[in-house]
Amino acid sequence: MSKIKEAFLKGKAFIPFITCGDPDLETTAALVREMAANGADLIELGIPFSDPTAEGPVIQEANIRALSAGTTTDKIFALVEGLRRDVTVPMVFMTYANVVYSYGAERFISTCRRIGIDGLILPDLPYEEKEEFLPLCQQYDVDLISLIAPTSADRIAMIAKEAQGFIYIVSSLGVTGVRSKITTDISKLVEVVRANTDIPCAVGFGISTPEQASQMARCADGVIVGSAIVRKIAELGKAAPTAVGEYVKQMKQAANS
Amino acid sequence: MSNSKGRFGVHGGQYIPETLMNAVIELEKAYDYYKNDEGFNRELTELLEKYAGRPSLLYYAEKLTKTLGGAKIYLKREDLNHTGSHKINNVLGQALLAKKMGKTRLIAETGAGQHGVATATAAALLGMECVVFMGEEDTKRQALNVYRMRLLGSKVVPVTSGTATLKDAVSEAMREWTSRIDDTHYCLGSVMGPHPFPTIVRDFQAVISKEARAQILEYEGRLPDAVIACVGGGSNAIGSFYNFISDESVRLIGCEAAGRGIDTFETAATVNTGRLGIFHGMKSYFCQDEYGQIAPVYSISAGLDYPGIGPEHAHLHDIGRAEYVPVTDDEAVDAFEFLSRTEGIIPAIESAHAVAYAMKLAPTMNKDRIIIITISGRGDKDCAAIARYRGEDINE
Fold it and tell me: Which terminus of chain A has fewer Cβ atoms in its 10 Å neighbourhood, N or C?
């Protein structure tokens, strides 16, 4: 069983996202431990990229802060290796295709396996291009996560049939960022996914409040929150871990209420 | 790469968010249909001829030829097109296509403002809404073009993220497209981005070499020995090369913006300093660091200030069919002034990169040899910046 599936065994999963190295790698380590201790079921670790085209302003700025602080892929690998001594919650990397490609896909993906990264989310790698990394992901047993968007329509079945780990359902059009309202009919998307696969689906993009988490969890297996957490980190800096831990606890409860 | 479309050798593809996949698939289907549709082609040809002023002149630059003392030089005068550059060729095609697809709104990125002005123009003509994304840095370098776009009824959004130049304008236009797809067509300005853009833009720009080939055969009774064009993303260059690719005797030379030199970090010469990567929807060469972070490139020319190159150029480089040479700011500015004085033609600073290389190449060639330089745009927009470069402050 893929380790990612464990994330969906304790009720509805809560999946927080943070950008590694924002504001520094020590804070990232503290954040991961706090989130894991407060009920995060799977943690998405963003490897910063200079030009994150799927991100809204909040995560774009986190990427800039992390890169300005000297964060690199190698330093993030070392961070994860250290965290894996005591953190057992499944973890996946979220980054852009060039970060993996430029490092050398095999070198990157085999390192993921070695340090205990369970999956890879690449928003600029659609179904048609997944052959770029899929054979290596299979070889090293790292799940390549598929995304489904509100515009996917006739593509959902095709994507779901070959999906691994979990399916990331993009709740809304546009880029990442907090939204006051999510208008997409998520249950309809999930229905089509369910007809084609039994791997779990988690919904992300735009979710920030406990009410939204509870609403989204009703139609999916998990809830992903990025910008709302990254905004707290932007506000609180090194002092963010405690507040983020409390927030994760609250959201995990809301998702299961 | 069993499912991957739009490949030029290993380059190209569709590395974009899932949200946009159906949009590019719909665009590809529409293009495949309309490119062979008689009515569409008639309408486009009429716009190109009666509105944009095609065919553009192939002008024998006699004084330039004599001053340089080598190969005979012809200029393909894309600067004479309506809106002042080759960008209108692609924009009229895409805007017409978008209209046929039922889209009512165009978005575009722009560097120097040439593509933005062309898109704003087509939107005005065809009665479409238009929003242009332009790096804030470039809105300052090219203030006149910002005003022109507004005058044409478009909204100009200054982009402050990243380096606030062309690459960031492309990123922002892509972000905008993911948030509004139903009524919006992303009118991409160069032979880059995800499939089918590199092919669509190339086909619409290929009119340059289609005309130039026929014109040179008419004037000289033979093919040229070299075709020279500047390359940022590479739309005027691929347009200038395309119909000569199978003529193996014709050297195809793309001039990249070397900025302050390819041995410095202040450069935008992708083939000369970049390496293979995946960005802005395509696999191609990019200026990047060891971790794949895209480099903050630099050139005096806002239109060539881009860290990548179109996938078909990357392929032409790989197979050795085209050469990509670096040209510095200094060389381009010298050429800008030189062409102005010798021929009374003020080229865009982008095009001046091609002129600069021709100035080196022509004297090494015999007088019976022929070079075609594509003057991709006119240089009025650059006068203030070049004056500043020479230490003179003028009011635009």
Answer: N
Task: Tell whether B265 and B122 lie within a shared domain.
Answer: no
Q: What is the pLDDT of residues A142-152, one digit of tens each?
A: 999 999 999 99
Hey, which residues of B are catalytic here?
87, 109, 376
Spatial separation of the C-alpha atoms in residues B380 and B348, rounded to whole Å: 7
CB contact under 8 A, A126 and B21: yes
Q: What predicted TM-score, i.e. pTM, was given to this entire model?
A: 0.97
A13 pLDDT above the threshold of 50: yes
Residues in chain A: 257
Which range is least confidently modeled, A30-39, A145-154, B296-305? B296-305
Q: Is residue B149 part of a domain?
A: yes
Provide the domain count of chain B. 2
Which tokens hold the place of B369? 């040899």
Confidence class of residue A179 from pLDDT cuts 50, 70 and 90?
confident
Using the Cα atoms of residue B167, residue B170, residue B175 and residue B178 in order, give the sign of their dihedral: negative
Residues B129 and B248 in one domain: no
Measure the CA angle with vertex A63, ends A61 and A68; round to 5°. Answer: 95
The range of the structural domain enclosing residue B170 comes to 15-48+87-201
Residues B69 and B94 placed together within one structural domain of the fold = no
Residues B130 and B229 in one domain: no
Q: Which helix (H) or strand (E) holds B113?
A: none
Q: Which candidate from A103, A128, A170 shows the least CB-CB separation from B4? A: A128
Average pLDDT, stretch B235-239?
Answer: 98
Set of chain B residues whose Cβ sits within 8 Å of the Cβ of A125: 15
Confidence of residue A40 (pLDDT cuts 50, 70, 90): very high
Is the backbone peptide bond immediately before B363 cis, with ω within 30 degrees of 0? Answer: no
Q: Are residues B76 and B182 in the same domain?
A: no
Chain A residue at shortest CA distance from B288 = A102
Distance from CA of B9 to the nearest CA of A (A): 14
Would you call B22 and A51 a contact, using CB atoms and an 8 Å cutoff? no
The span from the CA of B159 to the CA of B251, in Å, is: 38
Output the pLDDT for position B396: 55
- The count of CB pairs under 8 A between chains A and B is 131
Report yes or no: B142 and B113 within 8 Å, Cβ to Cβ: yes
Q: How far is A205 from chain B (nearest CA, A)?
A: 12
A64–chain B nearest CA distance, Å: 8
pLDDT per residue as tens digits for the range B257-300: 999 999 999 999 999 999 999 999 999 999 999 999 999 999 99
Residues B62 and B106 in one domain: no
Instruction: Tell whether B394 is covered by a domain.
Output: no
CATH topology for the A3-255 domain: TIM Barrel (3.20.20)
ipTM over the 0.90 cut-off: yes
Instruction: Report the pLDDT value the prediction gives residue B302, as an integer from 0 to 100.
Output: 87
> Which chain A residues contact residue B28 at CB under 8 A?
none
Residue carrying the six token digits 């119909």: B243
Q: Which residues of B touch A (CB under 8 A)?
A: 1-5, 13-23, 161-162, 167-168, 171, 174-175, 178-181, 275-281, 286, 288, 290-294
Mean pLDDT of chain B: 96
Indicate which CATH number applies to the domain containing B31.
Answer: 3.40.50.1100
